[in-house]
Amino acid sequence: MLKTEENMRSDKRLRLALIMIVDGVLIAHKQVPRPTLQYVQMVDNVEAFLNFPWGRESYLKTITCMKPPLDEDEPVQTLVKLLQQTTYRLQGFPLALQLVAFQAIPLLATKIPSPHYSTTLLELQVPHLPLHKSVNINDFLLVEVDPQLSVTALIPLAPNTTVWGDEPEDERALYMEELIAQNHEFNIHDWPCGDSSKQEPIVQPAVPTIHRKHTVPKKTVP
């Protein structure tokens, strides 16, 4: 509709674009975006729509997919099986969490393959993004056991940090924040349990590839 109706009113075009950004990117929950009635009603007031905490809404949508399901008899085992699949369906905007991880873990960022294209969004001539290779499970496993691994806390832990009115205090989260504030050095033994079915990878330094020119001997004239 945004592409075909050239005479559409600008205010209607803006509202449709906002709905698509929310339902198709920030709060994505289906392969083909379908407008959510709640968000459609909210867009009547554009100013209130823009001031809504979409970041929190998106985070809650994403983090719910990473927690054990509540309607299962063995929720933890169900989550373990889901995480062992080759693909996993995430909702919300998990890209934001990936960017935080790449910034907090510099060693992980070095595993990102160099893109074949350096075109920015403003320079694209086609209606889709070029495909780029990403990090895989082996990259994560190698980073976890690398002795050079370091993780930097990015979230400020000031005493007067703004919190949501309906957010209950979690003693476990407060304990973790206290350790981070004390610059505690975490190690792998601080995180028991988890999935240990895979053998721990052995980190070996990468061998630089030496490119040699392919030369063909010249034919000699008899």
From TrEMBL:
InterPro entries: DUF1985. It comes from the Eukaryota. Residues 1-63 form the DUF1985 domain. PANTHER family: DUF1985 DOMAIN-CONTAINING PROTEIN. Pfam families: DUF1985. This is Uncharacterized protein LOC108827386.
